[in-house]
C-alpha cells in the first residue's frame, strides 16, 4: 500500500469520526432544547394554575363581601343602616395639607392664597398629578393697560392691577370695572402698581397668621434697612378681608393693605394702611410679586433696583425674597432675624408653593440665563457672582434655566404640582414638571408678552398679556385676560415643543 492511499484511508476514517461526533452533538443539543421547552411549558402551566387559584380566591372573597353588605344593610347600628352614606375613614391628609412626600391624593389649594381661595388642583373630577393646556385659550376681558397681577378671590371675584394707571380692575360679566385706585403710586419704567395679594379679615388683624386678635396691641418692627409701619393690630378689615398691594412710591417700593368692601360685581377698596416701606426702587428691577404662604406669612419679591451689590447685602431689602407677618413685622423664625428670607436675587417676579409646601420663584437673569428656583430659607442664589447654574458650592443653583431670549419670566402658578411661568420677552407660557424639571413651551409667539398666570376655576388656567407695557407690540384690544383648560397628563408632557438649549446641561436641570 502506498503512503498516499494510507493517508487517504486515515483521512476518511477521521472524517467519519468527526461526522459521528457532530451528529451525536446535534442529537444531544436537540434533546436539551426539547427538555428546556418542556420545562418552560411546565413552568407556564404551574404559573397559570397559581394565577387561576388567586383569581378564584379573590372572586370568593368579593362574593362574601357583597353578601355581608347585603345582609347588614338596613340593620340599626351598622354603617349605612339608616340608608344615609357614611364618610369613609381615611389616613390621607386633609385637602390642602402639605405632605412631606407630596402625595396627598387630592388637589391641594394654592398655599399662596388664603383659606377658601380658588384651588390649584387640576379641577373637579380630576386626580392630582401633572397637567397641561388643551384647546384654544378664550378671551375673558380686553382693554387692560399694562396689567401686572391677577388676584382671584375666595368669593369668586377677580381683581387685576394696572401698573401705569394704579387702577385695580374687577372682572365682571361683559368686561371690567374699576374697584379703586391705589394712592401714592409713582409709575416709572418697570415700577408702578405691581403685585396684589388677599388675606381674610380675622387673620390680618392678628399680625401673626394664627387667627388670634388683639384690640390694644400695636406692632412695630424692622428688617434689614426697611421698616414695618405701625399698624393697629385690631384694625378692621372690610367684610371681604384685605387686599395688599406692592407699588413704587416717591421714595421707595412699599406694601400697603386696603379693606375690601362690597360684593362680587361691585367690589371696592378702602383707604390704604402702610405695611412696609424702604424697599429700593428704580426704573427697573423692582421685583413686586406678593403672596401669602401656607404659614400665613406674607412673602414679597424685591429686585436689586439696578445696584447689584444689594443682592448680597443682608442689610438691604433689595435683591431678596422677604417674609413678614401680615402687619409687616419680622417673624421670629426668619433665618437672619430680619425680613430677609433668601438673598442673591436679581429681579424675581413670581412665587408659588407646591403641595409639599415648597416655595418656588421665577427670576430674571441679566443677559445669559433666566431662572426657576426652589427657595430654601437663608440660601444665597448667587447674584451678581452667579447667573444660572454655576456649580459653585457657595450658591444654590436654579432647578431650571432658560436663555433670556426665550423667557424673561414673570408670574408663576402651580396647578397639580405642575409649574406654569409667564414669559415676557420669550412670548410664551412655560410648563415645568416639578418632578422631572422638564420644561415645555406653549403658545409661542401667539399672544405676545405674558405677565402673569394663575389657577382658574373648574380646571382652567388664566394668563394675562402685557403688550401695552412699552416693550410689546399691542394689537387692537390689548391687553387681554385669557383662560385655557388644563387636563391631566403623564410625564413627559406633550408640549408644543421642548425649547432647544433651554436647559443645558440636561443632567443639571432636574427638580430637587
Key features of this structure:
four-stranded antiparallel β-sheet, 6-blade_b-propeller_TolB-like, disordered N terminus, Neuraminidase, membrane, seven-stranded antiparallel β-sheet, alpha+beta, PQQ-dependent sugar dehydrogenase, transmembrane
Q: Determine the fraction of residues in helical runs and give it as a percent range.
A: 10-25%
- Spans of at least 5 consecutive residues whose pLDDT stays below 50 are 1-37, 47-127, 204-222, 493-512
- Average the pLDDT over all residues and give the rounded result: 76
CATH superfamily: TolB, C-terminal domain
Radius of gyration: 32 Å
**What structural class should be given to the helix and strand makeup?**
alpha+beta
Beta strand count: 27
Q: Examine the coordinates and then state which fold CATH places here, giving the name of the CATH topology.
A: Neuraminidase
The gross shape turns out to be globular
Q: What summary fits the major beta sheet?
A: 7 strands, antiparallel
CATH architecture: 6 Propeller
The succession of helices and strands, N to C, reads HEEEEEEHEEEEEEEEEEEEEEEEEEEEE
Region (Disordered): 1-24, 75-137, 205-232, 489-512
Biased composition (Polar residues): 1-17
Transmembrane segments: 51-70
Keywords: Membrane, Transmembrane, Transmembrane helix
Amino acid at each position: 500500500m502506498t503512503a498516499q492511499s494510507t493517508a487517504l484511508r486515515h483521512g476518511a476514517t477521521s472524517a467519519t469520526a468527526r461526522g459521528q461526533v457532530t451528529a451525536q452533538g446535534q442529537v444531544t443539543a436537540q434533546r436539551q432544547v426539547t427538555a428546556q421547552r418542556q420545562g418552560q411549558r411546565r413552568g407556564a402551566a404551574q404559573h397559570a394554575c397559581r394565577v387561576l387559584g388567586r383569581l378564584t380566591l379573590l372572586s370568593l372573597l368579593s362574593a362574601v363581601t357583597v353578601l355581608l353588605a347585603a345582609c347588614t344593610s338596613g340593620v340599626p347600628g351598622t354603617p349605612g343602616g339608616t340608608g344615609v352614606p357614611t364618610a369613609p375613614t381615611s389616613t390621607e391628609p386633609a385637602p390642602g395639607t402639605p405632605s412631606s412626600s407630596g402625595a396627598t391624593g387630592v388637589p391641594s389649594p394654592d398655599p399662596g392664597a388664603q383659606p377658601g381661595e380658588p384651588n390649584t388642583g387640576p379641577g373637579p373630577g380630576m386626580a392630582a398629578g401633572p397637567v397641561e393646556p388643551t384647546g384654544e385659550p378664550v378671551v375673558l376681558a380686553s382693554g387692560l393697560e399694562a396689567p401686572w397681577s391677577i388676584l382671584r378671590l375666595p368669593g369668586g371675584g377677580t381683581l387685576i392691577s394696572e401698573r401705569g394707571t394704579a387702577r385695580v380692575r374687577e372682572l365682571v360679566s361683559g368686561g371690567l370695572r374699576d374697584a379703586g385706585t391705589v394712592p401714592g403710586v409713582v409709575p416709572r419704567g418697570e415700577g408702578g402698581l405691581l403685585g396684589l395679594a388677599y388675606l381674610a379679615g380675622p387673620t390680618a388683624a392678628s399680625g401673626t397668621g394664627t387667627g388670634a386678635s388683639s384690640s390694644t396691641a400695636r406692632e412695630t418692627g424692622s428688617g434689614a434697612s426697611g421698616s414695618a409701619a405701625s399698624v393697629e393690630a385690631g384694625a378692621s378689615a372690610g367684610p371681604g378681608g384685605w387686599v395688599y398691594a406692592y407699588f413704587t412710591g416717591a421714595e421707595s417700593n412699599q406694601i400697603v393693605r386696603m379693606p375690601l368692601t362690597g360684593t362680587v360685581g361691585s367690589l371696592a377698596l378702602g383707604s390704604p394702611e402702610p405695611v412696609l416701606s424702604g424697599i429700593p426702587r428704580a426704573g427697573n428691577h423692582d421685583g413686586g410679586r406678593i403672596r401669602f404662604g401656607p404659614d400665613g406669612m406674607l412673602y414679597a419679591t424685591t429686585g436689586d433696583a439696578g445696584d447689584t451689590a444689594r443682592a448680597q447685602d443682608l442689610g438691604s431689602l433689595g435683591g431678596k425674597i422677604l417674609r413678614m407677618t401680615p402687619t409687616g413685622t419680622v417673624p421670629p423664625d426668619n433665618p437672619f432675624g430680619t425680613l430677609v428670607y433668601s438673598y442673591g436675587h436679581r429681579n424675581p417676579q413670581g412665587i408659588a408653593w407646591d403641595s409639599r409646601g415648597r416655595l418656588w420663584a421665577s427670576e430674571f437673569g441679566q443677559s445669559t440665563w433666566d431662572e426657576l428656583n426652589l427657595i430654601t430659607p437663608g440660601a444665597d442664589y448667587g447674584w451678581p457672582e452667579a447667573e444660572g447654574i454655576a456649580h459653585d458650592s457657595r450658591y444654590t443653583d436654579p432647578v431650571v434655566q432658560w436663555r433670556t431670549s426665550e423667557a424673561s419670566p414673570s408670574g408663576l402658578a402651580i396647578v397639580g404640582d405642575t409649574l406654569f411661568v409667564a414669559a415676557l420677552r420669550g412670548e410664551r407660557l412655560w410648563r415645568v414638571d416639578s418632578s422631572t424639571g422638564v420644561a415645555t413651551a406653549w403658545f409661542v409667539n401667539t399672544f405676545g408678552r405674558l405677565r402673569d398666570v394663575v389657577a382658574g376655576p373648574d380646571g382652567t388656567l388664566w394668563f394675562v398679556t402685557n403688550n401695552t407695557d412699552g416693550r410689546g407690540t399691542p394689537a387692537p384690544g390689548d391687553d387681554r385676560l385669557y383662560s385655557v383648560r388644563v387636563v391631566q397628563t403623564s410625564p413627559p408632557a406633550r408640549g408644543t415643543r421642548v425649547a432647544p438649549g433651554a436647559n443645558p446641561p440636561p443632567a443639571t436641570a432636574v427638580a430637587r
